[in-house]
Amino acid sequence: MSKNKHLSYNNRIDIEKYLCNGFNFTEISRLLDKSISTISCEVKNRRTRIQKKNPYSNAANYICNKLIKAPYVCNNCDSKTSCRKTRYEYFSKEANSNYRNTLVNSRIGIDMNADEFNLLNKIVKEDIKKGHSFSMIINNHRDEIHCTKKTLYNYLHKEYLDVHNIDLPRLVRYKKRSKDVEKKIRNTKQRIGRTYKDFLLYKEAFFIKNNCDASIVLKCLLKLLNVLVTFLIF
């Protein structure tokens, strides 16, 4: 049996399918190679509440007695379509979305207690007034500060610290990086037969065709100049 591993989206899809087919937690845990408590907590904590609004009935204020015990959901209940009571169902997509939100929210905030953060805030505030950068502050207080320069910048941008961007002279001089603009693909069909290579080939064929001598060199050059201008304009 696999331990210390989170349920994947495919596992949640299987759980929903097995619940709709009437499988109990023991059978589901054996099929997914997970503990029974993992399946039970997953279903109970990530089930969706469904409450029908009926102004002529108070049934929606009551919860079905079948939800008190496992499997805690109405996925396989035959009367769920006609039941007017508040019920719960397990949906894999909503359960996985709830899991992802919990995962993100658990990493938001400050990873230290109040005393540690107050000490950090005091040190940063005093040293910033002296004109020190975050790198200097960390180097001068290695025993008191146990975070990286990137963490200090994150706390600054989220306004956790009692300092602001204007207090860091170099930071306000940094320009925001511009994103690379996608280059538009030009229509190359317009250049067919109008490149400089095509001009050289035309020039060579022109001299061979006309057998240019000294008497008609000027006329040839004028005609070539006219052709060259045509290439450049169009």
Task: Produce a short descriptive summary.
With 234 residues, the protein is mainly alpha-helical. The chain has helices at 9-20, 25-32, 36-45, 92-105, 114-129, 134-140, 149-157, 196-210, 217-233; strands at 48-50, 87-89.
Instruction: Please list the strands of the largest sheet in the order they lie side by side.
Output: 1-2
Assembly type of the chains comes to single chain
Q: How many structural domains are formed by the residues?
A: 3
Element order: H for helix, E for strand: HHHEEHHHHHH
> Which structural category do the helix and sheet elements fall into?
mainly alpha
Mean pLDDT, to the nearest integer, reads 80
Question: Main sheet, how many strands, which sense, barrel?
Answer: 2 strands, antiparallel
Query: How many whole angstroms does the radius of gyration measure?
Result: 37 Å
Query: What percent strand?
Result: under 5%
Q: Shape from CA axes? A: flat
Helix segment tally = 9
DSSP strand tally = 2
Terminal Cα span: 74 Å
The percentage helix is: 40-55%
Return residue spans where pLDDT drops below 50 for at least 5 consecutive residues. none
What does this structure look like?
The chain has 234 residues and is mainly alpha-helical. It has three domains: 9-105, no CATH class; 114-173; 189-233, no CATH class. Helix content is 46%, strand content 3%. It has nine helices and two strands. A two-stranded antiparallel sheet has the order 1-2. Helix 1 (9-20) packs antiparallel against helix 4 and helix 8 (196-210) packs antiparallel against helix 9. It is flat, with a radius of gyration of 37 Å. The model has no long low-confidence stretch (mean pLDDT 80).
